[in-house]
């Protein structure tokens, strides 16, 4: 069952909210945030690329087509936990194929061994 509601907000208040949103967007410009689904997949053990492929609802063949890499190479990369050891140009190509910023494919902390 779906319930809907209507809220009336005075125009002046709505304009103020829009201004606040615009300010926040400007502050966050250039920042990289991972979708919750990608983060949860990573926490569950999925490799970085595998998590993004699943989130974007594509397969290795589609990403291979978008990047010019072979589906076998995409499959190999999908099994890797981190893409930090790849050439940056490879990361950029993968990012373009996925429609994300290259930084979204790189881990902040390479080794967190204790």
Radius of gyration: 19 Å
Multimerization status = single chain
Order of helices and strands, N to C? Answer: HHHHHH
Distance between the termini: 49 Å
**Which residue ranges are poorly predicted, with pLDDT under 50 across at least 5 consecutive positions?**
110-114
* Range of helix content: 40-55%
Give me the secondary-structure category.
mainly alpha
Overall 3D shape: elongated
Strand portion: under 5%
Question: What number is the mean pLDDT?
Answer: 89
Strand elements, count: 0
Verbal overview:
This protein has 114 residues and is mostly helical. Helix content is 54%, strand content 0%.
Core attributes:
114 residues, mainly alpha, disordered C terminus
How are the secondary structure elements laid out?
Blueprint: H1 11-28, H2 36-43, H3 48-55, H4 60-67, H5 71-78, H6 88-98
In short:
This protein is 54% helix and 0% strand. The protein has six helices and no strands.
